[in-house]
Specification:
The complex is a heterodimer of chains A (459) and B (494). By secondary structure, chain A is α+β, with helices and mostly antiparallel strands. Chain A has 16 helices and 14 strands. In chain A, strands 9, 10, 11, 12, 13 and 14 form a 6-stranded antiparallel beta sheet that branches. A 4-stranded parallel beta sheet of chain A has the order 4-3-5-6. Chain A has a two-stranded antiparallel ribbon with strand order 1-2.
Chain lengths: 459, 494
């Protein structure tokens, strides 16, 4: 097997066993060539990248380190004025997004749109798969992914899932339980639905804690509510009348959140007792479920080869018990918590190995920066800011600088037997270290939304 | 107080000793001292606040009688004697405070030195006298003032000193000096809780007062201490209606969240909320070169003074301008002129920042990748201008610092209510005719001061010192609120 640098997407079609057996020199050579190719082909067609390259005076990329000045900060994906959302100015929002992708979005009809959800759905109809994440401070960032990425993205997802859990839902049907929302354009939610549709049994095989859509419009409002609350201006906030109807439904739904939880737990524990199941969600949501379930005296009993997958740390959970992992495995009756490290901005995620490290696949290039934003050498162990170059991104720029502090090891000596650079589970948001708000996280999203639900439930 | 030799080492990780000053006594941290961490890695040690909490407050209001009976002119004499002793070149304690603020704070030496140099000026006799007379009236502090017609009055009023806790801000060291001055002038008992970003200036001033006369009634009513905000053991001991009557809190929500739980009837909150300032520029500035340069220098001064760290510093500039390409090009020209003006400012007004704000630089860089909505001129390392091309300020407008302004085009300049609130302290306006047109609207919507772009209190005080005495401080009148206004009625003319 040889990695073709002109088609990094084809790498994802290989079984993970093959990819993790490749030698470091093979991988690095192919990565370098693929990166050079991505820059050459994307620069002229992505306006924002061209601007950054011009400003940084980068003409060619010869090596991985050369891409550092061209990594996008998370702000790039939300650099539009917030008023475009408030005024529903989808024409200008689309032209902004157009400067971040090679796709020509100018032909997408926008006249009849009146919500962010409808806008994103319209873009999907025209070949895009735009997902958003959000911080807790009130602005959605939009990642301009498209159908062009889909085949490699899908292949990568299922292979990494198989590496982390031993299960490939494309081939076997396993009832799936997830702590998220049924549908929506928030990246994790959107991925959940898309991948479920590509699994045996389809979306109907998925049991959701919240069996309704996560509204992007109200999610953007959740952030604003929180910001307004911090400024003590909650009473001055004007809620868009167009959203009132939707809000009413959500208030109804929010009154049922306890009911949702009870229904979800009883379906899981009673109806699927003795079966093989797959349970997934953020660590904090799963812990919450386990604590509630334990209190209600619910007892889970599944087959030994059932799978529990968690991620996202304990953000959004105040004073989590130190033994939270034990509480989760005890309650759900599983041997271990499978996991992978990733972020909305990057399609290539890193599965957790049997020795407790997250390993990166060849199509994701990890770069770790020191305090002066200088990349550490690609040998040995280093702690610093995580940056990723996602070679699977074909129609937008895959270079991204994250808010995570990680410890990386580039040497191929992990006891698990997998090659590929690996990071430890000790992942901290720089924003948390500084006591401020920095990185966008899916957990933060859930928190802002849940605070919003609590808020609308009381008015 | 042994801060001089140790303070210089604070940035190198050495622990600095900070004493408590309690009514004329100096209490150094002993073997049971408590260590705290301040800004920029500074560490300092104080006596155990829990041990001294009960002594920090004046438990019996009768103990205020000595100050109550001291004539205000004697208090002014004492403060006027203290003032010159606070000059940097003759006071090692003030020098230590200055050095620490230089290390821990954001201001550069050329900008910070004039701030400390202005401290003695706060204690000049004419200024103290004028301030009291304009805001309270000396006779109300020294005795009962008849309210009725001469010979027929049966009602009197007096301004009575109260027991105050001041939770002060540390971003500008003048706050410590102002607190000392106001407290003495209102015959109050004053406990100052120092901030971790300026743990010295208040101690240095009160310590100098102790050096001058440890037994003066004014000295006897100052206590200065540091404890970690939110230490409930200390705070519950101090903040009780039987011990504290007025609580002055700087810093808005951040200090408010700590103290809210103690606010019960009987404790009046004097909230010195954080303020933001803006400028407003009329279309004239975009119409000819001379006007543009004049307005640009005005904006540079409004934003550049104190390196944009003060509440009076302009962060957003609303410019009367259409949002078509021609007008936006002119707005960008104006931005370039402001950027140039920043660099032309003399160093005592403004310098390049000591530490560029990396987060702010990232914000600017992200905006610069798109031409349609924003134009970015300059950077966070020396000075910068973000030109908005829609009617939106940047979302990080309240974090603009170190000489970076955001120009926002507004076709209709009369929509002031959308830009200002009670949070808006100062509005610089160009040209003068526009200031006259807008000032009432601005005042109705919460603004506390309007002035021509580029001018300052210092300049106007030089023209006529009298007119700058006894100003209301962000519309809040703290002096009048620090005293209790008491009525005395009699059945017959006395």
């Amino acid at each position: 097997m040889k990695l073709d640098p002109s088609r990094p997407g084809s790498w994802a079609e290989q079984p993970f066993e093959v990819l993790f057996a490749l030698s470091r020199s093979e991988v690095e050579q192919a990565q370098r060539a693929a990166l050079v190719g991505r820059f050459q082909s994307l620069r002229s067609s992505i306006n924002a990248l061209d601007k950054l390259a011009t400003r940084q005076d980068v003409r060619v990329i010869d090596d991985v380190e050369d891409v550092v000045p061209l990594l996008f900060d998370h702000r790039v994906y939300k650099s539009y004025p917030l008023s475009l959302i408030e005024k529903r100015d989808f024409k200008r929002l689309t032209s902004w997004l157009g400067r971040l992708t090679t796709h020509d979005l100018s032909k997408v009809p926008l006249e009849d749109l009146n919500s962010v959800d409808a806008w994103l759905a319209r873009l999907d109809e025209h070949g895009m798969i735009v997902g958003h994440s959000t911080g807790t401070t009130g602005k959605l960032s939009f990642i301009p992914r498209s159908r062009d990425e889909w085949p490699a993205w899908k292949a990568a997802h299922f292979e990494v899932l198989r590496a982390a859990t031993g299960v490939d839902p494309r081939r076997e049907k396993i009832p799936t339980f997830s702590t998220g929302y049924r549908s929506g354009h928030q990246m994790m939610t959107k991925m959940g639905k898309l991948f479920a549709e590509a699994s045996v049994g389809g979306d109907a095989n998925r049991h959701m804690l919240y069996d309704y859509a996560l509204s992007s419009d109200l999610l953007s409002l959740a952030g604003r509510l929180q910001a307004a609350e911090e400024n003590g201006e909650l009473d001055q906030l004007e809620i868009d009348p167009q959203l009132l109807e939707e809000r009413k439904h959500l208030i109804e739904a929010s009154r049922n959140r306890d009911g949702d939880l009870a229904r979800f737990l009883s379906t899981l524990a009673d109806e699927f007792r003795g079966q093989r199941v797959r349970i997934g969600g953020t660590s904090s949501d799963l812990l919450r479920l386990a604590l509630v379930g334990r209190e209600k005296g619910i007892h889970c009993e599944f087959t030994r080869d059932s799978v529990l997958m968690a991620g996202g740390g304990m953000k959004g959970f105040k004073e989590a018990p130190a033994n939270w992992e034990e509480i989760i495995t005890d309650f759900f009756g599983v041997d271990r918590i499978a996991s992978m490290y990733g972020m909305s901005e990057c399609m290539g995620t890193a599965p957790l190995c049997s020795s407790g490290f997250f390993h990166f696949m060849p199509y994701t290039i990890p770069i770790v920066l020191d305090e002066d934003d200088t990349p550490f050498p690609r040998t040995g162990t280093h702690t610093g800011r995580m940056c990723l170059f996602d070679l699977l991104a074909e129609t937008y720029w895959g270079g991204f600088i994250s808010g995570d502090r990680v410890t990386i090891n580039f040497d191929e000596d992990c006891a698990c037997g997998w090659n590929g650079p690996r990071i430890t589970k000790d992942i901290v948001r720089f924003g948390d270290l500084e006591g401020g708000d920095d990185k966008i996280t899916c957990a933060g999203t859930a928190q802002a939304y849940s605070e919003f639900m609590d808020y609308v439930g009381t008015i | 107080m042994t801060i001089t030799e140790q303070s210089a080492a604070s940035s190198t990780g050495v622990v600095v000793d900070i004493p408590f000053l309690i009514r004329g006594r100096i209490i150094e941290p002993g073997p049971d001292g408590v260590e705290h961490s301040g800004r920029a890695g500074a560490r300092f040690r104080t006596p155990d606040p829990r041990k001294y909490a009960a002594d920090l407050v004046l438990r019996d209001a009768s103990d205020l009688k000595d100050l109550h009976d001291t004539p205000i002119d004697e208090i002014i004499d004492f403060l006027a004697e203290l003032g010159p002793l606070l000059a940097l070149d003759c006071n090692p304690l003030m020098r230590a405070a200055f050095e620490l603020a230089l290390q821990a704070g954001e201001l550069t030496e050329p900008v910070l030195r004039p701030v400390y140099d202005s401290v003695p000026g706060l204690f000049v006799r004419s200024r103290l006298s004028g301030q009291v007379d304009k805001l309270i009236g000396k006779e109300y502090l020294d005795g009962w003032v008849e309210l009725g017609r001469p010979g027929r009055s049966t009602m009197r009023m007096r301004a009575i000193g109260t027991r105050n806790l001041h939770i002060i801000a540390g971003n500008v060291p003048l706050v410590a000096a102002m607190t000392v001055q106001r407290s003495a002038l209102t015959k109050g008992d004053c406990l100052i809780k120092m901030p971790s970003n300026d743990p010295y200036t208040a101690a240095a001033i009160v310590s100098s007062m102790i050096d001058l006369d440890p037994n003066h009634p004014v000295t006897k009513h100052f206590a200065v201490a540091y404890w970690k905000g939110g230490d409930t053991v200390v705070e519950r001991e101090i903040i009780r209606p039987s011990r504290i009557e007025k609580l002055t809190a700087w810093g808005g929500m951040s200090s408010m969240t700590h103290i809210q739980r103690y606010l019960v009837p009987g404790i009046e909150l004097i909230a010195m909320n954080p303020k933001f300032s803006i400028s407003i520029v009329g279309h004239e500035a975009l119409e000819d070169r001379t006007a543009m340069d004049e307005a640009a220098m005005g904006v540079a001064l409004m934003a550049g003074r104190m390196n944009q760290t003060a509440c009076s510093s302009t962060r957003v500039v609303y410019v009367e301008c259409e949002v078509d390409d021609d007008d936006l090009d002119r707005l960008e020209q104006f931005g370039l002129a402001i950027h140039k003006a920043f660099h032309d400012l003399p160093p005592h007004e403004s310098t390049a920042p000591k530490r560029p704000d990396a987060e702010l630089e990232n914000e600017l860089q992200a905006l610069a990748l798109d031409d349609e909505f924003y134009r970015v001129i300059g950077d966070a390392k020396s000075a910068g201008v973000v030109v908005s091309r829609t009617e939106d300020p940047v979302e990080f407008a309240d974090r603009l610092t170190n000489r970076i302004v955001n120009l926002v085009p507004v076709p209709d300049i009369s929509r002031v209510q959308y830009w200002v609130s009670e949070e808006t302290q100062t509005v610089g306006i160009y040209p003068e005719s526009l200031r006259e047109r807008l000032r009432d609207d601005l005042a109705l919507h919460g603004v506390q001061r309007t002035l021509p772009l580029g001018t300052s209190l210092r300049l106007q005080s030089a023209a006529d010192p009298e007119q700058t005495l006894g100003l209301p401080h962000d519309g809040m009148e703290p002096l009048r609120r620090m005293v209790r206004w008491v009525i005395d009625q009699s059945s017959a003319v006395v």
